[in-house]
Fold:
Amino acid sequence: MLIKNEHSFSFGAKHVPKVSEAHLEARKEQIVRAAFLCFARKGFHPTTMQDICAEAHLSPGALYRYFAGKEEIIQSACDEAQAAQDAGLIAEALAEPDTRAMFHRLVHAFFSRFDDPAADVYNRASLQLWAEMAVNDRVRESFSHNHAVVHAGLGEVVREAQRRGDLDGSLDPGALVSAMIALYDGFRLQKALDPTIDTAAYARVAEALLGGTSWTGAR
Amino acid sequence: MLIKNEHSFSFGAKHVPKVSEAHLEARKEQIVRAAFLCFARKGFHPTTMQDICAEAHLSPGALYRYFAGKEEIIQSACDEAQAAQDAGLIAEALAEPDTRAMFHRLVHAFFSRFDDPAADVYNRASLQLWAEMAVNDRVRESFSHNHAVVHAGLGEVVREAQRRGDLDGSLDPGALVSAMIALYDGFRLQKALDPTIDTAAYARVAEALLGGTSWTGAR
Amino acid sequence: MLIKNEHSFSFGAKHVPKVSEAHLEARKEQIVRAAFLCFARKGFHPTTMQDICAEAHLSPGALYRYFAGKEEIIQSACDEAQAAQDAGLIAEALAEPDTRAMFHRLVHAFFSRFDDPAADVYNRASLQLWAEMAVNDRVRESFSHNHAVVHAGLGEVVREAQRRGDLDGSLDPGALVSAMIALYDGFRLQKALDPTIDTAAYARVAEALLGGTSWTGAR
Amino acid sequence: MLIKNEHSFSFGAKHVPKVSEAHLEARKEQIVRAAFLCFARKGFHPTTMQDICAEAHLSPGALYRYFAGKEEIIQSACDEAQAAQDAGLIAEALAEPDTRAMFHRLVHAFFSRFDDPAADVYNRASLQLWAEMAVNDRVRESFSHNHAVVHAGLGEVVREAQRRGDLDGSLDPGALVSAMIALYDGFRLQKALDPTIDTAAYARVAEALLGGTSWTGAR
DNA sequence: GATGAATGAGATTTCATTCAT
DNA sequence: GATGAATGAAATCTCATTCAT
Structure:
């Protein structure tokens, strides 16, 4: 109450008090995390607000204080799912002077994520996200944006490799990037179908394909 | 006419007339096709029975003559989506004595599908299917079965290439197959996000990766 | 066809040809019998027209040639259920000069019906009928009419017994009749609840109550 | 308030606050009462949830907070209809040393119920219950249980009368009980058909039949 | 006359959202 | 701020009835 009065003079009311803001964010986080679990378990649409409430130990009324509706929770969950630090990892790899080492770092960085015990939830939720993206403009936009960022980052990597003469310069860099992303996303799909699939073996294959060591026949 | 008379005398006749059977299948087909469009457009769960009815130019009651409920339509749509003649294509490729030619045939066979104007609908529906698979046992089973068939087929291809010394024999064949499938499915995901993506360029990259021509650096 | 022409001159067209009429009645009978079974099994309202069709080995379209709708089948079933030859039995009993013999004949006539193996179906259907009567004016009317006939017949019986000095003349004859009917209907209810209940023992009690032999204490 | 605070600290609390529990019961009561009226008016199956909603001044959603479905409301209504304090009345009568006085008390206790202006609703609902019982296992069970209780109670009455020599010991006590119940239920049926029927006259007849005073002829 | 596929109104039920407490 | 009972629109599904064949 005091805090509120303190700030009631601030023009434009750009800030709600910090304590509240922190609380607000914490609550939102809590709700999105709960929603995430539910979505991974049942999918976006079959998940009811009650499911999320139960998972978050909150009442329906409380939820609506933090989110305008289910749609907004889905969007937040999608944004959350996109929030991986992909760009940073890519930038780090780019610093690597040896192309194969670069690919190794990339593959390791991305595929070591599957060691996280929460990865299965995340993978399953990703499938939901893809489906929603195909159907929901707002979600597609967010997905698209993140995709563009990753695409741009890997584009640098690929073009650098081509510049170095390690990757065939006549291949479309965009298509090479798409293939790299496909190797990652396509694996997540298979991992969602069967979580026991061998990640390390797959990572080795991915690295070999990119680094040109898988082909042992005539050049 | 004769059949009709025949039927009116025999109770408990084992066969309903063929016309009915044909009609039954035709109607089911019609409904599943309509559902497919709706699913691609709105997703499984946001699609209402009314949507499907409208698309199929049928009344709700008529739908329930052919399917016990929405769930069953979803399952049929999933089965339909799986019904691609993958196994045949793979077997044909396997007959090819040259490994790169084999990969070329495979890549061509699979990626030429995207030329079909209906491919977009099919891709978007696939995303729905993946999401449903994560959440619906019956659908996962069907998906899993089809995946196993394709996996087995490509397994032959990969082991043959290893036997010939064209692919590194120390790589896990299963993981190699997974990567091939990932290159395909991962592209479908990207195509669903942006249908204008260049399929031919991507196919060239896929072929180059498998055939070891993408890497132009030191061996 | 020929028959039809033969009659096409008859004024007023009161008769449809006898063969057709017989056929019509036979079909109606067949349908009502089927309906009766269904009603006894599931009740009036949960029984669907399809249930009746299946039981009657007829198509829905055929049913509607004989009955205007479900309502009409229910009414016919009710009329059928009422069509017992009660009045005749009562008239016969009335001829008996000895009152106790008269009661014996009545009780025997009515309770021996429960020996019929179809009696259970009939009893269960009666419960449905009673429920419908409470709710459906047309059915109540039909029920009411039959009830009045039986009531009148038993009224004669009771008044005759009072005239002879065998039943207390100060008791309301209508109430006595009601009690006789209650002893019958109330038993049917119990028989529907438990078909193994001992009919003969009950009949002896009913006779004893009416004939004044159940009371063995001081007068 | 205290309770509320208490509650907010303890997760997994075993009791929900009493207010809620009371409220729950009150609402259920309210709904069942409304349903009862509807059932008496239209029968179980023709009554729609909307009918019950309207009668209870509640929205459809609200109903489903208290009952899982229509079936459950029907069952509750049936249980409610059985909840008469029959056993108590019978026990009281049993205390009476004079058999005719005992019968008088019984008849009076049961038939005075028809003076209640709500009795008509109750009777009509009973017919629905009987019909449902014939068709619905769960309802039959509940009915059967209550019937057994009443049967046992009246069995004591009858055997006591036989012990005293007032009722013929050679008559089956169970059948005598059945007849007593039939005199009651059979009357309810007639009262549902015609609510103006003279209850007092009928009660006198019932008493006379049991007490052996209806027969005025030779013994 | 018979068939049975199709219709579509209407019933049950769910669930996102609101709002009095 | 929190609660959770209530709302009511909308979804799924049923079934009496019709009608082209």
